[in-house]
Amino acid sequence: MTMVGINESVKRREDPRLISGQGKYVDDIRLPGLLHLSLVRSPHAHARIKRIDVSRAAKHPGVVAVFTGADLQEQLGSLPAGWVVPDLKQPKHPPLAVDKVRYVGDAVAAVVADDPYIAADAARLVRVTYEALPGIVDAEKATKRGAPILHEGKADQGGAPNNVAFDWEVNGGDYAAARKKAEVVVKERIINQRLIPNAMEPRGVVAQYEPASGQLTMWTSTQIPHLLRLLFALVTGHPEHKLRVIAPDDGGAFGSKLYIYAEEVITGIIAKHIGRPVKWIEGRQENYLATTHGRDHITDVEICGDKDGTITGISCSVHANLGAYLSTFAPLIPTILFGIMLVGVYKLSNIQCKVRGAFTNTTPVDAYRGAGRPEATYLVERMVDRFADAVGRDPVFVRRKNMIPAFKNGREVATGVKYDSGDYKKALAMALDMVDYRQFKAEQRAARKEGRLLGIGFSTYIEICGMAPSAVAASLGAGAGLWESSLVRVHPTGKVTVFTGTSPHGQGHYTSMSQIVSSQLGIPMEDVEVVHGDTSAQQFGTGTFGSRSVVVGGSALYMSLQKVKNKARKIAAHQMGVPEKQVEFASGRFVVEDVPDKSMSFPDVALQAYHAKNLPRGMEPGLEAVSFFDPENFTWPFGCHVAIVEIDPATGEVKLKRYVAVDDVGKVINPMIVDGMVHGGVAQGVGQALVEQAVYSPDGQLLSGSMMDYAVPTAEMFPVFETARTETPSPTNPLGVKGAGETGTIAASPAVINAVVDALSHLGVTHVDMPATSEKIWRTIQDAKSRRRNGRKR
Amino acid sequence: MVTSDFEYLAPSTVAEASRLLSKYRGEAKLLAGGHSLIPLMKLRLAEPKYLIDISQVKGLSGIKDERSAIAIGAATTYAEIESSALIRRRFPILAEAAGQIADLQVRNRGTIGGSLAHADPAGDMPAVVLALGAELVALTARGTRTISVDRLNVDLLTTSLRPSEVLTTIRIPNLPARTGAAYKKFENKASHYAVVGVAAVVTMGAGGVCTGARIAVTGAGPKPVRAKRTERILIGKELTPSVIRRAASRAGAEIGDRFNDDIHASSEYRAHLTAVMAERAITEAAARAK
Ligand SMILES: Cc1cc2nc3c(=O)[nH]c(=O)nc-3n(C[C@H](O)[C@H](O)[C@H](O)COP(=O)(O)OP(=O)(O)OC[C@H]3O[C@@H](n4cnc5c(N)ncnc54)[C@H](O)[C@@H]3O)c2cc1C
């Protein structure tokens, strides 16, 4: 029996089940009469569909049905964008392509068979005749005249002229004026490469339709069961109250399961059509093609300021690659979640940011852990280093000089948003202490004399989390409210079931939420059950993403717990015959003030609430509470990450030697879980900095289409992470939490690249693009050396 | 990703495996660890009608001390090689290289024979075995045949093993006194195969002069090759850092203009890495030779 409070490192309650193979994932769902679906996908990046011949596939033994886009066009509808920025072009996105395919992996036909192997064999028998069209994969080139057009037609006819989906901007202060006055202006073209999320469990869907009741049930690996139910109903016309979406155990997502996907609609509609349950399980290579990718920005950025190290403005112009169609949140990620973060933690008052979203013949791009914020943080933190270098100052000096001073209760910044609370210098100071900056600088100088290349890099990052205040989000384009709710049901024996609309897929909510209950009701964690991810259990919910679950869902839970406690106190006071204010609640007991032996335990009170033989007059029986929490503002975690790298001068290989992470995520529920979050996030951020990249051929073939070709970071790349925290509570929610799911990914990439550049700075290197692969660094060193030789000759 | 239909056969003796292989000529493939073959089948780049599993065949795995040599059964896994006391004592380079292959799951299944027969251009074992001057024993219905490792690799994914032959044994002859060996691998960050790997076996004479050298390069070109130019520069010389560097700089000579070029490394970078890895392998082998 563990009575736990907040800020205690208890082990994750979900783990024994998950690590002993007793989890239940989508592929573990077995139903009588289950059929299996396999999709025929386009091998072309861009082509017209001339003819689809399904006759051989349909005759294959064991095949139940074969469908093309034309067969189901009406029922399948078109996948919409769930976030609409001004003037967004929204071309049709049929789940099964009808007349054109627009990326390698676009689905063109669905084969349903008795087992998955037959389905896969038969899918190969579907003959599709294509007329190949030229493709385009580069977001900037796609918008140039003469580029192949993905979505033909005028904007008001569902087309996207010049492949432009939107032009978005955010401005603050007067950048042009700041630039004119500035003593120093530094420019850079920065590529934020495309990434593939690589959740351990690919996606999967099982759909079951009961014709008699009209009820459709879908098990799917999703982060957003309720939003998915809503979107499915809107897309297909299937009534929302006859649809149940269940998100069972989920092997990770990192943002890639945050949408309505073609396969969910296809599987659901086909199950309904055939009247038998249907399962689709994504293979790993299919996952590389059919599940969203992340990042992919080309940015021209400029930073300006004065020689004393004062930064006065930052400006950027971005080409954001959206892929072939708009994924659900695609318009949000490179705009709001990116643009408003360009202030960083600095007193920057002049901002100019233009973002052009472009369609290309590639897999759709959407949120990937951090989603927009890593892209912004990388630009800002990289450019602060560039600026420091240009004015001949230490990057730490420049950071400190420009940092916003500590504040507790809101501070408006140039992009128009209001940070909640922060003490940026404190986190920086703690990190400097941990790395021993001076000592390192001495070591670096000595190493250089021996020809060794050591570098240190900083990232004093900030992020926007706790998605989201609904009205604010709606004004920025959100198509749904982003509040969260909770239902706390106390059973007659005092055990508790929590129903939450958040939908964990690795975050440990079962533990964190149990901890919140235990801390508030004084009952052991074991007495708490947390139910999530089932639209028939929770009335609504927004899901899990954007480091929102404890901030918004946890707060909704906290509110319900207060309601439960208050009602229980009333019952206890009534039964003990004392006024309510004389009853205190401590360690799970209601105690009469100054009369310690007069008390009732929480389970005693729960039983009374249900027995209802002696309740205060007018009180309803039972003990449960529902709360809806819509935050007044986002939360703004921050911190300082420091990377130390050593580069092998002969091969260019970058080795991460030390990694220090000081994070401020406000109040912490479970420090061990937060540490785990930071570790995983840092690994992904370092992965982006050093090894990960999705590579397309110019005509749209994914060359890094498997784990043999796409590098995922592995444990051997990492030293032991040194983590620490400062704690600046958020004033925007009752728990004072800020969210901890994305810090590592957001902070790590710039820290590592800044370290790499620092290691090479004495050779005149000022920037390298991610990923800093061995070959790229080797070439950078060669080029720098030959530049120096030529320089000397001249 | 699903393989096409096939029939699974599990013979219990080598002779039976060999007989089945002849019987289903052209339609059958031997299955050892399956860690190269199964991926190819899932991609449908290989669609054998019959799979003849030799992983449970008696006598095909295990490591034997033959005094003047050790004999490694073709179906011996990397994990067995890595942990064998005999190998660690007599040919530590083999254990060292086996330990650098992929991850534990792959090492628990992948076999040395499968690696040699498959002839992946970036395989580790082919280079190490080549540098060690191994001798290979293959079995057909007609009897056994011995192949010098120098004759094994023909081209990309192609060896001189005939389709009906079962590779049974890899025999590694003892090394002369004062011989050191080392394997240096520059890993592909995605697959963890070698971008370039160099195995060096160096013998030092009593006078401090190099008397023998076998240097093998993998990953760089279409097949593992001996760096004979490098070997010639080393032999007869004191192995000072500058001699080693000069010799290593020629390690790509035999590959010529056939360096691999892909999204992981350009041919130019591979050529450069070949010299760097050769220098490191030779330096370490020479140090161990003393
Ligand atoms: C994730 C992953 C990472 C890997 N990383 C590396 C790495 O870093 N370095 C490396 O070298 N390899 C690596 N490999 C490949 C691995 O080493 C393979 O196991 C090996 O190349 C083949 O051995 P196998 O026993 O699995 O052969 P199989 O896959 O069973 O067979 C391969 C081929 O050899 C034939 N064959 C097998 N045994 C015999 C025999 N006795 N006689 C004749 N023909 C035979 C088969 O018919 C088949 O054509 C990796 C594989 C994977 C899946």
Give the gist of this structure:
The complex is a heterodimer of chains A (794) and B (290). Chain A is of the alpha+beta class. In chain A, α11 crosses α12 (395-402) and α19 (671-690) crosses α20 (743-760).
Protein described:
The complex is a heterodimer of chains A (794) and B (290). With 794 residues, chain A is of the alpha+beta class. Chain A has three domains: 31-133 and 200-252 and 257-290, Aldehyde oxidase/xanthine dehydrogenase, a/b hammerhead (Aldehyde Oxidoreductase, domain 3), CATH 3.90.1170; 294-467 and 633-793, 2-Layer Sandwich (Aldehyde Oxidoreductase, domain 4); 483-629, 2-Layer Sandwich (Aldehyde Oxidoreductase, domain 4), CATH 3.30.365. Chain A has a seven-stranded mixed beta sheet, sandwiched between helices. Chain A is globular and about 100 Å long. The longest helix of chain B has 23 residues, at 267-289. With 290 residues, chain B is of the alpha+beta class. Chain B has three domains: 7-53, 2-Layer Sandwich (Uridine Diphospho-n-acetylenolpyruvylglucosamine Reductase, domain 2); 63-173, Uridine Diphospho-n-acetylenolpyruvylglucosamine Reductase, domain 3 (2-Layer Sandwich), CATH 3.30.465; 179-289, CO dehydrogenase flavoprotein, C-terminal domain (Enolase-like, domain 1, 2-Layer Sandwich), CATH 3.30.390. Helix content of chain B is 32%, strand content 26%. The chains are: A alpha+beta (794), B alpha+beta (290). Chains A and B meet through helix 4, helix 9 and helix 21 of A and helix 11 of B. The complex binds flavin-adenine dinucleotide. Flavin-adenine dinucleotide is lined by residues 29-37, 39, 54, 74, 101-102, 106, 110-111, 113-115, 117-118, 120, 123-125, 161, 166-167, 191-193 of chain B.
Helix content bin of chain B: 25-40%
In total, how many domains does the architecture of chain B comprise? 3
Shape of chain A: globular
Order of the strands making up the biggest sheet of chain A: 3-5-1-12-9-10-11
